[in-house]
């Protein structure tokens, strides 16, 4: 037999799930779906440079920085399609040593930087890289 507390909780649980589904649907409508989310990022280089300040322990002295052009691709593992910009660089490990070349993929939503993907094998497999001197000039 179901107790009083369980009977009261069950309708609340159903209501919570329904409201959550409605709010997700409203968010999709408000953003205009994939067309509004997948806008070509115009200032992608500047946004990546800004994001690297928070991403790296020591953003100074980066070597061998290179960047690809924005490309619409899956974010991986069945994830959504977003504009992705692949970046390669060699960051400092400590004051004297470097970590080795690292590759990340910057994802963009509605033309703005969202996050970095740490292991972008499939996203960056065929990227044509060009020098990215702006990343090598980061101030402390």
Shape: globular
Quantity of strands, as a count: 6
Query: Mind describing the biggest β-sheet?
Result: 6 strands, antiparallel
Strand content: 25-35%
Helix-strand category: alpha+beta
**What percentage of residues falls in helices of 4 or more residues?**
25-40%
What's the oligomerization state?
single chain
Specify Rg, calculated over alpha carbons: 21 Å
Number of helices: 5
* Poorly predicted spans: 9-31
Mean pLDDT: 82
Distance between the termini: 65 Å
Order of helices and strands: HHHEEEEEHEH
What does this structure look like?
By secondary structure, the protein is an alpha+beta fold. Helices cover 37% and strands 25% of the residues. The protein has five helices and six strands; from the N terminus they run H-H-H-E-E-E-E-E-H-E-H. Strands 1, 2, 3, 4, 5 and 6 form a six-stranded antiparallel β-sheet that branches. Strand 2 and strand 3 form a beta hairpin. About 16% of the residues have low confidence.
Short description:
This protein has 140 residues and is an alpha+beta fold. It has helices at residues 4-31, 34-37, 44-55, 121-124, 133-136, and strands at residues 63-67, 71-74, 81-90, 102-109, 112-117, 130-131. Strands 1, 2, 3, 4, 5 and 6 form a 6-stranded antiparallel sheet that branches.
């Amino acid at each position: 037999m179901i107790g009083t507390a369980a009977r009261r909780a069950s309708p609340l649980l159903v209501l919570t799930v329904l409201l959550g589904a409605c709010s997700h649907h409203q968010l999709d409508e408000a953003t205009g779906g994939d067309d509004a989310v997948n806008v070509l990022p115009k200032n992608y280089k500047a946004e990546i440079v800004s994001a690297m300040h928070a991403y790296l322990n020591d953003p100074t002295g980066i070597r061998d920085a290179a960047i690809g052009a924005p490309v619409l691709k899956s974010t991986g593992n069945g994830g959504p399609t977003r504009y992705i910009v692949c970046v390669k660089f060699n960051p400092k490990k400590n004051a004297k040593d470097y970590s080795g070349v690292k590759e990340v993929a910057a994802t963009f939503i509605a033309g703005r930087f969202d996050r970095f993907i740490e292991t972008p094998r499939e996203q960056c497999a065929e990227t044509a890289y060009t020098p990215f001197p702006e990343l090598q000039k980061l101030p402390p």
